[in-house]
Amino acid sequence: MTGATTGCRGMARRIGAGLAAAFVVLTGCTTPGGARGHGPSGATMVRTLRSLLPPGKISGAHGKGVGPVQGRLPSSPSAELIFDGGRAVARVSVAIVRLSVPVPDLFAQCPDSAYRPYDRCTSTVLSDGSRLNLDAAPLRQDRPSGARQWAAQVTAPSGTQVVVSESSVPAPGGADTMADAPPLSLHALGRIAASAAWKPLMNVLPESETGSSSAATDTQPSGGGDKQPTIMAASITAALTPLLRDFRIADRGGSPGFGHLTVDDGHGRSLLAVNVQQWKVHDPALVPVFGHAEALSDGTLVTTGAGPSTHGGAGAVEWTADMLRPNGLRVFVSEVNAPGYGVPATRAAPPISLAGLRRISLDRTWQRFAEG
Questions:
Q1: Which of 2, 173, 185, 266 is spaced 20 to 30 Å from 300 by Cα?
Q2: pTM, full prediction
Q3: What confidence tier does 156 reach under pLDDT thresholds 50, 70, 90?
Q4: Which spans does this entry mark as compositional bias, Polar residues (predicted)?
């Protein structure tokens, strides 16, 4: 695993979180305080949220200001309430934070489809340069047809961020209270998140610590590289695509050093991911990884494996190929029999054989990323 692990508690897992989950993450962000002030009170957060809602019944409203959290540094202001629009009832939440600038892409983009395969997220840039993400997602990725959550996230170039989320409220008999349509549309959530009413509250909000612009993920193979990955995900998927001529390809994404897409042979989507790393030659950390690997005539080492998915998911299996060139270039290819990590299998086995994964890892196309 590579990348920074400091800053907002839980932000290292942001890559695997939905926008609605960002509400939980933001309320766990630490703030060092500072000249901007102590931030808005919980009552102010509730009052502001209520003022932006359309007519309807409101209950259970409560909010939190910037205050101590278990003896640690303060948390970000937030508010939550139950909103009954007449046809549907939902829990509506909001959290605000001021991030360090420049804001890392990880904090302002749609959720990674490798971890949120059933999310439907769009991203647009507003007239003031802020980025608006609108996300419709199942409350649980392992139950894509169950209860849902919708969210809007607005991130300004100045580092201010507002996340407004809407989720189902359990109804008698376990029915989904947002089964037909939520009381607030995605666009309505977007208008609330983008409202100028949050600006005065942001002006007195302390800055949060987001740490390095490189966020840790759990997508790296065991050991991790000896330096931060700098290869863009789009470059990895662009190199991978020509090697997959017999499949329908979709859902491209990733992060620096990690690219992924889904392949479909007509029997269901399967997530295929590639990590590209540059290691120091003869790095001792790789000895246990490639100790029993096949050695090719040019000194390249390659190993394959299969077993239950390390990310979980009912019935999910993960097949891998791990390759190390003499120049330190490492390519780790993995595949699961599901459209994403941590979700139930949608097919009996991945569509690409272990031999096929081995060929992908050994393909000379990856040499373009080697250093030296």
A1: 2
A2: 0.77
A3: very high
A4: 209-221
